[in-house]
Specification:
heterodimer; A: mainly alpha; 4 helices; about 75% helix; about 0% strand; B: mainly alpha; 13 helices
């Protein structure tokens, strides 16, 4: 096995452990939590807000390929797709498909 | 051991109109192509999604690997970006608790916890018999996880045929889908405030601390939203 190959296996192992840790600790902690308690409602709010924080961070300060797209183009694409989501009575298929097409077109022509 | 009818009901939930299958497929297709481009082989790309199954964490892993970060730094980076899974688990597993069900189901199936499966479960749990919610959850999780693993493999195979513009187009699908899904889940003042404040504070805290912005923004927004919800009850 090459050094690079064994290194990649270690990287995958470390990433998997770091991810499973949050999931399993969540299960362990939830064993003592009642679904009608205030602490449950608090964690529910934190879960939704953390997800919203993550998604908006990915749009505004992305990693990977989206970095190469101007922020205004990214925001215009997201706003149009969100508007379509509500116009189409909360149908998720149209904005999902439109987002990829729209961003590709906007990059070419704006 | 596992109630097959509830498992299949959960498994089939990804076929619905508002299914995350397209968004999941597009983003893990891009991950498969990315992993190939940074030097992962077929098996390594497969096992990356098989064992991790968390898109932002895998992106952090890929970027850290590219710049030659140490294993400790990769661990911390991935843990920070995936720490959202902790409150997600705490706000979902109490809904699935049942004394008749063995604990291994909970510790095994928590691997399936992701935004897609979590949002489906939160939407549908009330319609499922409490005794079998964990089996329903395992069905949802197995389906979404399978889509992710399959798409990663597909992305690896077709990566040579994906242009830069196509990769960029694929990258926006996931945030748009989940943002719309979150907006659609704003059914009371506490969750509505959580989503709106989280959307604002996530990027705002990035200016203070790029590594900790999701946790700082999420926890601050969540606590404020909780207080707003309690005050209005």
């Amino acid at each position: 096995m090459t050094d690079l190959s064994s290194n990649i296996i270690l990287v995958i192992a470390v990433t998997s452990i770091a991810t499973y840790l949050s999931r399993s600790l969540g299960v362990l902690f939830s064993e003592r939590i009642d679904k009608n308690s205030k602490i449950f409602r608090l964690f529910n709010c934190i879960a939704y807000s953390t997800l919203a924080a993550l998604i908006s961070k990915v749009i505004v300060f992305p990693a990977g390929n989206l970095v190469e797209v101007d922020i205004f183009i990214r925001l215009i694409a997201v706003f149009i797709c969100v508007a379509l989501f509500f116009i189409a009575k909360r149908n998720l298929v149209y904005p999902t498909i439109l987002s990829a097409i729209l961003l590709t077109v906007l990059i070419k022509f704006v | 051991m596992i109630n097959s009818s509830y498992f299949l009901l959960g498994f089939k939930s990804v076929r619905s109109v508002d299914s995350p299958a397209i968004a999941l497929g597009c983003s893990f297709l891009a991950i498969g192509a990315l992993l190939k481009n940074i030097g992962f082989n077929f098996q390594q790309s497969f096992f990356s999604t098989f064992f991790t199954y968390a898109l932002p964490g895998q992106l952090v892993m890929a970027e850290s690997f590219l710049i030659g970060a140490s294993l400790v730094n990769i661990f911390i980076g991935v843990w920070l970006v995936n720490a959202r899974l902790f409150p997600m688990a705490v706000s979902m597993f109490p809904l699935l608790k049942n004394k008749k069900q063995p604990k291994w189901k909970y510790y095994l199936s928590c691997h399936f916890l992701a935004v897609s499966s979590w949002l489906i479960m939160k939407k549908d749990y009330k319609t499922i018999n409490e005794d079998y919610r964990i089996d329903f959850w395992m069905g949802i999780g197995t389906a979404t996880w399978s889509i992710a693993v399959f798409s990663t493999v597909l992305g690896f195979v077709v990566s040579d045929y994906l242009s830069k513009d196509m990769m960029i187009g694929l990258a926006i699908v996931n945030p748009v889908y989940f943002f719309c899904m979150l907006l659609g889940s704003m059914k009371n003042i506490a969750i509505g405030t959580s989503v709106i404040l989280g959307t604002i504070l996530g990027p705002a805290f990035y200016l203070v601390s790029p590594e900790w912005c999701i946790l700082y923004g999420g926890v601050t927004a969540g606590v404020i939203a909780f207080l707003v919800g309690e005050f209005n009850d």
